[in-house]
Each structure stands twice: as structure tokens, then as C-alpha cells.
Amino acid sequence: MKMTSILLASVFFALAPVASAQDAGDKKPDAKTDAKTDSKSKADLKDGEKSPVVTEHEITIGGQLIHYRATTGLMPQPDDYGKSKASVFYIAYEKLEKTGPNGEWVRPDQAKRPVTFTFNGGPGSSSVWLHMGALGPRRVVFGDEGQMPVPPATLVDNESSWLDLTDLVFIDPVSTGFSRAADGEDASKFHGLNEDAKSVADFIRLWLVRNDRWLSPKFLAGESYGTTRAAALSGDLQDRLGIYLNGISLISMVLNFQTLSFDTGNDEAYWLFLPTYSATAFYHKKLKAPFDQDLEKTIEQARTFASNEYLLALAKGDRLSKEETDAVAQKLSDLIGLSKEFIIRSNLRVPIFSFTKELLRDQGRTVGRLDSRYKGFDGNDVSDRTEYDPSYAAIVGPYTAALNAYVRGELKFESDVNYEILTGRVRPWKFPSDSSYPDVSRTLSGAISRNPYLRVTIESGYFDLATPFFASEYTVAHMNLEPELRKNVTMNYYKSGHMMYVRKEDLAALKANATKFYSHAP
Question: What's the whole-model pTM score?
Fold first, then answer.
């Protein structure tokens, strides 16, 4: 089976690099470093495990000064006999209060302070994107619309960090970041949907044990394939380990892979991608009246056409008359900005890489997959697919430089091992063999049914061609939740792509939506 690969990074369309004078001048003082482990004595460390590095910092979020502790280290993955099979790299941020008997900084009451375990996707991605782009206390500077900065990178305090809402634990699954299988162990044993979920669940359990956080409200936040992992974790944590969650944030969601796969015989992706095609054509001014006037109205008309007239046409297949084909092709042309003739030659089915190549072909440009606002340039203008994703090319350099400087400089964690930002060494990724297309949406709905206090928020960008928002809407509508529990799932939208937080306005909007989510969660 041919699968659409889910990378998990996205940015914004690359224009002139922009960074404000205030951002560029924001230098972080050296952090206070504590040689002690967090709550694990050196005598208890397993298999040559090194003590984590603990530093303390301060940040102002929403006018509130927050003193916090950062713990950076490698957690073992012990088997049933205590032998470590791998080491998982993590960075944990915990808010502190000056309430100790001698006025020292200590953790708040664990029963009142939430903890969120967060990761990105790939598969094969580290947690760098959510960490240094949205949730963590430090972020990479991009232009207000997400323009690529002048290399290498600039780091500033993240005024939209979630640290005022929750403690944060960023997890790099095995083979990503600094996480590695133990000597003599086969790393591929961790590279699969179920294997990966079990590994991350085991990390979460051990982190709760070592940090005395069993009574804390528990959340997950995942992006892209990280949403697949989060849904799988919702079942594994609950059913195998008895760890019940309070909430899950799904950023750029994919739970049902059939919704993304442009395979022969699978028409689902074509109509589910159509509203994002339409939003993209609107942004690049390829639509004509009346569809060029209002983005939200155009998207709604695309939704209606896709789920009615277009879906019926796809279902008819070769039974569609010439007159019907012409009518559907013309409406498609009006909504997605490609010529009627091209659409007819494509049998009314335009896969993603044809769309990203064809939309601006008359300008000699391509559009991004992770964020279709970005423009690229291919050396071969007559090919049938793009040579690269300009939205990914704009972000990988700044994030790589920022993470490597930050973890060694401010967090004081030293390693000569390459930090794997996004690696292909996890391929082939194993999916269960009982289905042509992996689908963990029922795992998530089952977790909600068993734990009706579990809340889920879904964050989607209008210009995300990796995990389109309409596919997320379709997936939610088919989770088979009982009516009373459907209100547990909410959706929010952004005028950006896969990584909506690189756009400054959407970074603030994401934080505002997170604030509502945590305030309403039990």
C-alpha cells in the first residue's frame, strides 16, 4: 500500500526575512545550573544512565513572572527485567513557587498543577517544532507572517508559552533527537504505530513515578503524526497502564490515513482536500468572482460542493456523462484555480503534488505542502510534481540551529551525538496489518467513552496541505461518539498552515485557545 508521508513541520510563505529590533536584541542570561538530579538519586540510575541536568530560569507570560525549572536528560526504557532497551531524551519544564520553609523555590501542589506530555510526528521527527515554536518558554523568531529569518536563528522568550497553564515535558521518541536504542538493540523494534505508542507510554509512566506526579491532571499535545501517536496513547495509557487523561491537544491532525492517501481506487482524499485547494487558490489570487471576495465564504462553498455534487460525481465514476463531467470540471476550476481542461485530463481527480505544481505554473512557481502560502521554484518547470517543499525548506535551518544552541548553551546539556531533527532512519514504519489504512480515531473515541471527562481540542490551518482541515472534520464526524460526548471535541481554525504558530497572530490565537481549553478541562 502506498501511503502519503506525514512530515510534521510547516511554516509560512518565504518573503523578505523579518525580525524586529526588540527580538534581535533579546539575549538570555546564563541559567543557574543545579548538579542534582530532579528526584532520582545517582544510586538509583540504571545501566550507566547519566544524571539529568537541572537549570532554573524566569519568564514573563501575560504579565505574570514565572520561575521555572528545566530538567534535561535521557530516560531509560527498561524491559520487564529492568534492562534498558533504549534511552529517551526529554526536556521538562516545571513552574516553581517561593513557598518552601526557608523561602526556597518548590513545586506547587501536584494535584492542582497540570502536566502536559508533548511531541511532534513524522514519523521520525523530534519535538523541536512544538518546543521551539509554540509551547516552550523560548521560541525561534520568524517574520510576522512566518517569513524565513536571516540564518542562522534568533531565540527570544515565548510570550505565548503554555508554561503558565501547565508543566511541559517534551519527548523525543527513539531514533529522534538524542534518543537512541541501547547498544546491541534493534531500533526498528520501536518503529511502528503500536511499538512507538507503547514506548512513549512507558516513558510517561516512568516520568510520573520518578517525579511524584501521579495525582497531577494529565494532558497530551501532539502535532501531525504526533496526533496519531496521541490517539494511540489515549488507549494504551488508559487500558494497559491505568493512566487516565484530562485532555489532548491535536495540532494538524491525522487519525485516519485513508483521508490523506491519493491511491488508485480511493476517492476520499480528493474531495476532502478540495476546501484547502480552494483556500490556497484564494490566497494566491487564482480565483475569479464571486470566489475571490471572502476566504471564509469561499471555503464554505468548497465544503458544500465537495461533500455533495463533487462526491456524487466521484462515486459515479465512468457512469458520469460528458455533460456532467464538463459541469463538475467547470465548478472545480472556479473553486481551485486550475483550468477546466487540466481537471478533465486528470479525470476530475487532482492529487496534491499535481496541485502544488500546477497552480502557479504560469508564474514558474510552486506552492508548499506544509503551508501552501509559501512559494518555491523548480529547475524543471514542465515536470508533473514539485522538487521540494518550500514551506519545509524555510524552517528546518532556523529550528536546527536554535535547538542545538539552546540545549547546550542555556540548558547546559552536553552531547556530541547528532540531534536528529527529522530522520528517515525510522523507515519502514510498521502499521498494523489488519487494515489497509491505519485509523486510530476509534481508539480515541473509545478512550472518551470510557473516560467521559477526557476533552479534545483540534487545531487546523486553512493552508495545510499535509493534514487538511476538512479531513479532520470528516474524521471527527465518523468517530461514532454518543451525542452527549460529542461536545468533548472542539475545533479551531487558523489562517496559516501545518505549523500555524510560526505566524505571529496565530501563535497568540493558539495560546488563547489553549487557555480556554485548560480552564474548561476537569
Answer: 0.91
